[in-house]
Design brief:
Number of strands of chain A: 10
CATH superfamily of the largest domain in chain A: Type I PLP-dependent aspartate aminotransferase-like (Major domain)
Distance between the termini of chain A: 45 Å
Largest sheet of chain A: 6 strands, mixed
Strand content of chain A: 15-25%
CATH architecture of the largest domain in chain A: 3-Layer(aba) Sandwich
Helix content of chain A: 25-40%
Shape of chain A: globular
CATH class of the largest domain in chain A: Alpha Beta
Oligomer: homodimer
Strand order of the largest sheet of chain A: 2-1-3-4-5-6
Number of domains of chain A: 2
């Protein structure tokens, strides 16, 4: 829902009468890479902009949004009378873990005065690693940022954040007076005024508690271990005759082909036998395995055992 | 968010192209009583219909929507080219605990083929009481129903339900394919296909566990005790020379005037001194105290002590 809220702020900035009077019938549009998360299409349908008005911008061979294409599509849309509401840059795509080029995208947004929302649900926590925070270079130009603490950071579901550069904008989109409910609290600390849900779990408390326990350094160490596991997995796959690595990972997602078998069937067999719960994805037309190194509690020998299990299953499928 | 989803289903039924292409520029409208919950206005803003297009229908002297007025407003809107999306009937208003007349409202909806959403967030659980379920007479005509288990039923936040008469409609509004995520699960049991959030807490489990513990009879008993407390409070207030009851409660909310003091100040003093956390509301132009008998763990003597505390504070404010 954090992407929903960021996109809504963009919509309401592009057309401030939307929240009061609904759409005026002009075509409103969002922009996102063809590798983006499905929540963007879902949110566009909910927000009354429409799924068909989410422009899917092409990505390069590593899965990053092509900023030149973005500029062209926006210019064509504006020429055709569309109202661009927001560009959603993905920081850590779901399949390949790719990071869109924020600086280039931001410069397109600035030129046309369009809201830049960054979807860092998966990749935002890279900011907590002292070196790998470079993955989000240019994040300072984003108007809003989704950042989930329940994915890479391991905080129990749900703990999704929306950071915003502009104080007051969110209240304008969401706020609704309810004199009978909002009593006594100090306004700045009252999430009821800015949350889209009315019932409010105190999810922020979980993050606060985790941060008290780990500290900045603890988050760095946690990410360091996750990156180490991702690198180990990529190295192992590159050296194995049974697999082919799709690309060296920038982040924590490792996609690889498994020779000679139907990957979907392989994943199901591993799941049913209780050996591993691992997903599959389509990368450039191939069904591949998708391993995400989010659990810092496991060791490289756990990963090695996983790969041995995969090979054993692969062998038994081929010989069957 | 359950009201949001019910309203979205109404919007998408009234104008099926909304989710794909956004609004076509016609004025879309929602209908709700002037006693309704603020979530309706909030949802209208988010859904791209607009807060200004939420028609507030007058209510009678007990806070129930006036169905004749509803019919007139809808007819005028249709004559003016508006697209009615849904009527939202409130089952248990926030301030007075009033229940809108579902049968009469349903007949207006049927006549014009408009989606009927019932907001039973607060009042829905009355269905679990063997006699008081009559409060929701006509609920069988609602297309969708919000029912919160985290209010009257005491299940920890959040546990909000949306019940819908029409299988498949919700998927159409919300569903978004994400081949990389929805793997292995059986479709009918996969909330990811129908939830608006992507990250999914298993809130249904809390309700299931509570129902296993209490059973149908346990819910009845729980509500019986809540109704007993509400009746005790109303009787006490009627017999007290210090208070005036706004109306006999149909449900669990008791609103009453406290003579001779500013009720807002009184509530704040009770809160600050730690004696009671009790809210205030505006009823027909008066600031009144609003007591909600939702905690079945308290006894009538706890309520008596509360009233004695209020009187003591009232006396000290008057004599100050």
């Amino acid at each position: 829902m954090a992407n929903f809220v960021g996109m809504m702020m963009g919509r309401d900035r592009a057309n401030p009468s939307f929240r009061e009077h609904g759409s005026d019938g002009r075509q409103h549009t969002f922009y996102v890479s063809d590798q983006s998360h499905y929540s963007v299409d879902k949110a566009a349908a909910m927000l009354g902009v429409g799924r068909a008005n989410v422009r899917k911008i092409s990505s390069d061979n590593r899965g990053r949004m092509n900023a030149d294409d973005l500029a062209k599509v926006i210019e064509t849309d504006i020429a055709n009378g569309c109202v661009p509401c927001a560009v959603i840059a993905t920081c850590g795509t779901t399949v390949l873990g790719a990071f869109d080029p924020l600086k280039q995208i931001a410069s397109v947004c600035r030129k046309h005065d369009i809201w830049l929302h960054a979807d860092g649900a998966f990749g935002g926590p890279a900011l907590l690693h002292r070196q790998h925070r470079d993955l989000l270079d240019g994040i300072e130009y984003a108007d809003s940022l989704t950042w989930d603490a329940h994915k890479v950071m391991g905080v129990p579901l749900t703990c999704s954040m929306l950071l915003c550069q502009h104080q007051g904008k969110l209240s304008k989109s969401v706020q609704q007076d309810a004199e009978y409910l909002f009593q006594v609290d100090h306004e700045d600390l009252n999430p009821g005024l800015r949350s889209i849900q009315c019932g409010r779990r105190n999810d922020a408390f979980k993050l606060w508690a985790a941060w008290q326990a780990l500290g900045d350094n603890g988050w760095h160490q946690r990410l360091e271990q996750q990156f180490k596991l991702a690198t180990f997995a990529a190295d192992y796959i590159e050296q194995s005759p049974n697999f082919e690595l799709c690309q060296r990972p920038d982040y924590l997602t490792i996609c690889f082909k498994v020779y000679g078998v139907d990957v979907v069937e392989l994943c199901e067999q591993l799941h049913v036998s209780g050996e591993a719960l691992i997903g599959h994805a389509n990368v450039r037309g191939d069904q591949v395995m998708r391993l995400v190194a989010v659990n810092p509690e496991i060791s490289t020998s756990d990963l090695q055992r996983l790969f041995e299990n995969i090979v054993a299953k692969q062998t038994s499928i081929i010989s069957a």
